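pasting for ref
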Amino acid sequence: MTPTSTDNLKANLGQAGGHLKAAAADAGTAIKNAAGVAGDELKLGQAAVKADLADSALAGIAAFEEGGAAAKEQMDALMDKGRDLIDSAADLIRERPIASFGVAFAAGFIIAKLARGSAK
């Protein structure tokens, strides 16, 4: 018996259906594999972000510690300059005591006048 056109159509449609079913199964597998790989990549990315944030925190702490040391250095420099200024003033007073007394008296007089003027 020779297959008819209808039989050939049914056979071809059956094969097409089988191929579509296999394609759907392969697509499902591919999606599952892609999701697994994406999950792995997400975990790797998350670990990298955590490492970068930890490094950033450590660098910030180090900068904070260095900031304290830098502030101490600046304070020491200012204290040295203040001592130098006091020493210079003391030397000037020793060299010219009468002039220094006159300047101090004039400054006190001006401050007293200003204080009385603002009290009214």
